[in-house]
Design brief:
The chain is an alpha+beta fold and about 200 residues long. It folds into two domains: about 35 residues, no CATH class; about 160 residues. About 20% of the residues lie in helices and about 25% in strands. The strands form two sheets. Strands 4, 5, 6, 7, 8 and 10 form a six-stranded mixed β-sheet that branches. The radius of gyration is 19 Å and the shape is globular.
Amino acid sequence: MKCVICGTEFTWSGRGREPLYCSATCRKRGSRLNAPLRVPVDMALADRWVRWKRMKRGDGSTKKPLTVDGHAASSTDRSTWSSLIAVEEAEVGDGLGFTLGSGFACIDLDHCYDSRNHLADWAKMLLAPVEGKTFIELSPSGDGLHIWGRTREQTGLKVRGLMNVEAYSQGRYMTVTGKPYKTSVLKLADLSYLFEVIKKLS
């Protein structure tokens, strides 16, 4: 038998379905190749991608950006970024991330679902202007949303209390899951209005 990913020869016991991969690593890579990440074409074509790894920090954790080689990446150092294809093929870390800037922006709605999986009213208010117009995905935790779009580079925003919102358009990276929210489309809308709303709330 020959692995369809790396070409390595391997033996098969003859039981069960005929295997395609020589190892769990190649099976994982094959799974990613067969289920490509669906993101807007502007993001897919931009060499602004990194990997990330969950790390302990104090009593909590943080998501450290990594290069495809497993070294520390930086949201402000282009030499540590890669293409989407390169980060999808890399084995390091826990997932993919995208660096913001050059018009790319993201609004992070954190913990916006309740225990019954209902969306909070404040999240509905922020989603209303862009639903069906831009790329929206579930966050890695599963209880948050990322609203992706475009706006000018400006100072990041953070609101805590009645709502948990962060909005960035430069100097940061955001994790990317590719798990679309129900009204998500593969487009990037102008988020300038939402940034202004969040600024007034901060």
